[in-house]
Amino acid sequence: MRGDWAMNWHPMLEYQHRATVLWLFCFLASLLAEMEKKDIEPVLKIFTTEDLQAAGVLFFTRNDTVNCSSLLLLEESDRLYLGAREIVFALNASNVTQELGKVNWSSTAKEKQLCELKSQSKIKCHNFIRMLHVNGSHLLACGTNSFKPQCAQIDIKTFTLIPGSVIHGGGRCPFNPSESFASIFVDDELYSATTMDFYGTKPLIYRSFGSRLTISTMENKRWLNEPSFVRMVRKTRGSNGQNNTDEVLVFFSETAMEFSSLQKLQVPRVARVCTEDIGGLRVLQKKWTTFVKSRLECRNGPQALPFGLLKDAAMSVSDSTNNTTFYALFHTQWDELKYSAVCAYSQRDIEAAFAGPFFKFSPTDRNEEQLPVRPP
User: Fold this and answer.
1) Based on the number of CB atoms within 10 Å of its own CB, is 255 exposed (0-12), middle (13-18) or buried (19 or more)?
2) Domains in the chain, start-ordered, CATH in brackets?
3) Best CA proximity match to 174, nearest among 189, 191, 154, 195
4) What pLDDT digit, counting tens, does each position of 286-322 carry?
5) pTM of the full predicted structure?
6) How do residues 224-277 score in pLDDT, each as one tens digit?
7) Alpha-carbon distances of 144 from 64, 128, 160, 362, rounded to whole Å
8) Element holding 309 (H helix, E strand)
9) How many beta carbons lie within 10 A of that of residue 274, not counting itself?
10) What is the CA radius of gyration of the chain?
11) What is the Cα–Cα distance from 183 to 194, expressed in whole angstroms?
12) Bridge partners (DSSP) listed for residue 151
């Protein structure tokens, strides 16, 4: 009897979207060809720091500050929070040269030593502040902490680290300072998409903090296979106050399992979890029961190769129509083809994809079949 994935794993869907494509090609071959015809020489202009300062551009620089890796802007309080290597700054958003507060947060000498003993480079064995979120009167900061991630609360008023607030950051912040990840704070709960181990081989989408039990994806390549997370956004499904459901969308690329003939083929995805999800029974205890994912299709025509690497995503809500559009930035995964593109997807199309039809796979020949409804 032929087995299939739909019988023993949480459903995965693939989506051939009908999205409007907005092409912003960075590879300017056609433009260069026209320039050659007209014998036009490109003009190269280099702006120095002095040029930018003369134009009124403000700079925040510190001799002891390196590896700035996270920013959080609070427009209502005119604050800009900056996470760097072993330090968190509070700046005046209207004048970033004005420092309003600073918290030093370093790895201990022992933590750095253990990190290096585990064959990590010395430059990576520091506390890189990768995540910043405001939670009420506190600023949640998470850092890699020499491949032993930690999270802590910073009092916004005094801008000091709250004693006793430091906790383990595994599943919330990556171990590796160069690893991509995504996170978002929703109703006092942290949603994070990262890896939970030293070597970065155990990816997960995780919900923590708050009053409810933690919940995550299963450790299964059918759910997540070598993903590279880029963005999480919150959206509401439904309209006019009828059956509204808050969801978190996760944008990422991963190694495809449905194309057995092509090794390490990267495909862009969007996944969804519902904020009201409390997990399931038996094997789904403390696991998402609303998790589904879809392939994001982005190509220049039906016969063209698709863009496989998702680099970033953003959500835009129209004030007049309340329609939501998602924009995604793509690159090709082949070095010989240096193209980029931006594709746009409507909320309606994404919701239709998550509603089905669903794909079923055979573990022997990987043949795809469409199922009209979501598998149990």
Assistant:
1) middle
2) 1-39+179-376 (2.130.10.10), 70-176 (no CATH)
3) 195
4) 999 999 999 999 988 777 778 889 999 999 987 766 7
5) 0.82
6) 999 999 999 998 876 544 556 799 999 999 998 877 655 688 899 999 999 999
7) 19, 5, 19, 39
8) strand 309-317
9) 15
10) 23
11) 8
12) 142, 167
β-pairing verdict for 138-143 and 150-155: antiparallel
Element (H, E) at 294: strand 292-295
Q: Residues, the chain, total?
A: 376
Query: What is the H or E stretch that residue 184 is in?
Result: strand 182-186
Per-residue 3-state assignment (H helix, E strand, C coil) for 39-75: CCCCCCCCCCHHHHHHCCCCCCCCCCCCCCCEEEEEH
Token representation of residue 26:
């960075």
Dihedral (Cα; 292, 316, 215, 204), 10-degree rounding: 70
Count Cα neighbours of 320 within 13 Å in the Cβ-side half-sphere.
0
What is the number of other CB atoms lying within 10 angstroms of the CB of residue 331? Answer: 19
Q: Give the residue among 223, 68, 39, 70 at the shortest CA–CA distance from 140.
A: 70
* Residue 33, H or E segment: helix 29-37
